[in-house]
Structures
1.
Amino acid sequence: MTSQTVIQVRDVRRSFRSPKKEEGWKGTLGLLVSPKYESHEALKGVTFNIESGSFVGLIGANGAGKTTLLKILSGLIPPSSGDAQVLGFEPFKRPIEFRQSISLVMGQKAQLWWDLPAVDAFDLIRAIYEIPTKTYRDRLGILTDLMDVKKHLNTQIRRLSLGERMKMELIGALLHWPQVIFLDEPTIGLDVLAAHKLREFLRVFNQQEKATIILTSHNMDDIERLCSRILILRSGEMIYDGPPGKLTREGELMLRVRLMQTPTSEELQAVTGLSAKSIDLKTGESAGEENEDGSDLKSIYFHVKQDQVASSLQKLMSKYQVVDMGMEEQSLEKVIQRLYEDERG
């Protein structure tokens, strides 16, 4: 491991075994007397390195293995095989030096004491991590300023809004100034303003403190605005590791067309000469789009280069009646949506 590499993952696999129940009362009895088990492989040979100060997005559909990977890296569970190191430590051994250097924030799980005011909860964290009083006060001042929550410090955690609670959770997770931060859906359930403030806080903290951050989120705004690198898991396998811009196919546009006819993908391929991957019949329908004219005609999206737009339109108009058309830039959200649909499909 080089001095700049803080996270190193080599062929990490993780399997879970769960009891399999047959239907009916016989199945319930069999589960008690002679249970049968089935295995599920959550991670399948994942490999990557992360450098110090990186802000990395971890993306995948539900069940892709994101949370399992974060639990392995934070030391909550061990890998079934392979090797994972964080800051030179084997996470599952959880030495005190490791625990003092990392933090895990899970948006769906509260980690502070709900019955305490936030300031008292933070004081307990100060005692647990043995943070010197002056250092603690300085850090608390920095974090509460960045989060704009000073006025809520004496409010009981349970009485705060979801957005304010999430801010307090983050402050509690960062008071010991971790070098590596794992964030699992930190903006889930937040309104637009609260999510924006949370993202801005994370961006500033990453830049100022050079903390290494791995973020999982289904909100592509989180990923696009914060992460210079993304890792995509699909069914436990790493299918992409690189910058978001490369994934959205720089220079590619989406030609949106509505036709009076309803051709198949194969027919559109024959007419336009485009590949099946360049023609998307599902996007408009899955996005729940509504047409201004009240019609139920669905949009068809063609993923084309700039110099292919005119010829593709000409070919379509020679065969079909075009109701309306438009151009859209590629978005990370739609690219990821296509990847998820490929997995299901």
2.
Amino acid sequence: MSSSRPPARFDILGIGNAIVDVVAPTGNDFLSRHDLRKGSMALISADQAEALYAAMPPGQESSGGSAANTCAVAAGLGARVAFMGKVADDPLGTAFRRDITAAGVHFPTEPLRDGAPTARCLIAVTPDGQRTMSTYLGACVSFGGPDLDEALVADSTVTYLEGYLFDPPSAQAAFLRAAGAAHAAGRLVALSLSDAFCVDRHRAAFRGLVRDHVDILFANEAEVCSLYEENEFEAAARRAGAEVALAALTRSEAGSIVLRGAERVEVAAAPVRVVDTTGAGDAYAAGFLAAHAAGRGPRACGEVGSRAAAAVIAQYGARPQADLRELIASIQD
């Protein structure tokens, strides 16, 4: 990295699906009636989305999507944050833009004028805190090359890519362009693998992206094992640590490990009463990247990530209601 590069305008630029999240408490019987598998994420049609939305009890609605959640939480932690993602020119798209901007995130992407409506994720939360997601992707899958602002990439210290957006070929091409623009400007590229099923569908492409373009990798145990086709977490972790400069690998209640070269840091999960696991991984990435932007070391990054995740899963919804800014200063390296 060149020491002569100019200071970045933003600490973090997220690129991902722009989705309106609808989070509502339900019983297990609701899942049974609507043939939903607890803890899963399923893609649904526009008609299915309308029917399920009508059947859900009143819930919390906010701008969402994995990277958008990370961006909003990171902004709440004091980082300077921008986001790129596609919404439609419709009421939900307007709501998404208003909400994420109010969270302190710069959102310059132009809306889709003609085409699918804004995406939405319908999240049923059962009493055990498990979230079952039914997602209609709508306009967000139209994100592609024309939406990528390479100047904004070059003006961001870390460009954070969301694995959920990896399905459309146009988005994959945009990811590679973003990585090229970031590295040409002396910046960093981070990737969240997002979901083991995403990795299963595009394993070879993800492997190439990680090996050749990613500096910071976020993954949970299932995702990193899927990426490297390893049955044992430790074997997959070793391979990840050998391919990226920094790997943050989460293991739910077992905490996380952070790998930087030969350095390995084990971070315990913060104690918490689980209410809703929606957005836990997103919040972990937010805390980690916000601490990284503040110049903190691997242990502090992992600790801030763990506490941010705990704050999210102790409540409904993917955005912490408490002020978390003191976390970065209060945690020691």
3.
Amino acid sequence: MTTSRPTSPTSPTSRAEQRRRTEARILDAATQVFFSAGYDRATIRAVASAAGVDAGLVMHYFGSKQELYRRVIDAAPVPEVSGTPAEAAEQILAGLADRLASAPAASLALLRSMLTNPEAASAASAGIARYEAQIAQAIPAADADLRAAIISAITLGITVSRHLIKSDELATADPEQVIRLLRPCVHSLAARPDPSGPPG
């Protein structure tokens, strides 16, 4: 009868697990640092200190601040959009309503970084693309990708105008009124195009 030997502390499996845990700890620390300080003011040294590791180890695992930021964006949850076009439109509007009602500190830190730093904008583009891809899946139209990008741009612009630019009208508007005015637009973009309508 052959018995399996217990995995030794120095086995490849345990080393891989240790690496995974260290990477996860660094990513958790980076998330907090980027959210609190923004991309420009965040430093590898600050991330390393928050993670309890050496700065050289952060660079060894991630290579650069931009790559670390990209990994933080990739790990961030993407709002779920699914179902019929009408259901998807309401999910998008509900998410926007939440963002209008209360300023989400983490999201605003990411948005501010995207608007002020090209590296941060480039790194965040993949996260935006994932969200737009979900929207596009729910739109029964040949130009679903473009429609999804327009919806994403509208909701992003409204969030930025309310919380960062603080546009007079949007900054003080009732979120329910904003959603009520926007609802026909989002539903129209998400709906199946009317074949009898004008070309466009």
4.
Amino acid sequence: MNIHNIGYNHSHDADFIINRPQGSGDNMLLLLKTPAIFTLEGESRVTGADSFILYSEHTPQNYQAYGPQFTNDWFHFRLDHPGDEALLERLAIPRNEVVPIGDLNELSIIINHLCYEVYSGNPHKDETIELYLRLFFIKLSNRIHSAQKEVGNTHYNKMSVIRTKIYNQPFLNWTIDGLSHELTMSRSCFQHLYKDFFGVSPMADVIASRIEHAKYLLTTTDTSVKKIAEMSGYASEIHFMRQFKQQTGQTPTQYREHKIKPDRL
């Protein structure tokens, strides 16, 4: 494997979009640290943070920010050695689909090291990069195919669908009772499994999805704060403003002014 372009913890504004109908001419891996909109096989959907996608060579790449910011790690690479393709096949790394994997910290650290090596003058950097890449994909496979997820694979798949629904429709009245009922689980079992799979509680995800949706509306529309509260799933404007400030450190109006003013100067 050979990396020829890489980025660590890159952030972009709300208008960020990638559209490569013929792909990038190589393999590309993204670690998603914020929600995004991906178009795959003609269908667009919002995907949550803490996910990855591995694009095959020549596969169309179409994705964009969902909310005021898009943050990710990424690298472009080629499968130059005979064993490279076999390694990815053996590790069962899915391709051309967004896959939620929970905590990205360990994988992101490896990309940070890779980034350093790619741009270093290390005389043995090709060997070091090869070792880091193998380690990265082994660790990625572990995240995807851990024993816990294999034991509870059906639950994990169903939880992933629920999480996607939450991020696609943050304005709905999501409750623990409703979510656990949809999966025919007890409240405690549902909350425990959700936290184990994704590293956050279901209601923390609900709040995060609503705040991200509100941020997007605040920076891309002139809709009133009261209406944005309603469109983001809040019955009370006061509750929305209180929760927004808790999550961002700013009121909705302050956030809007801070994000929009620099663009108008």
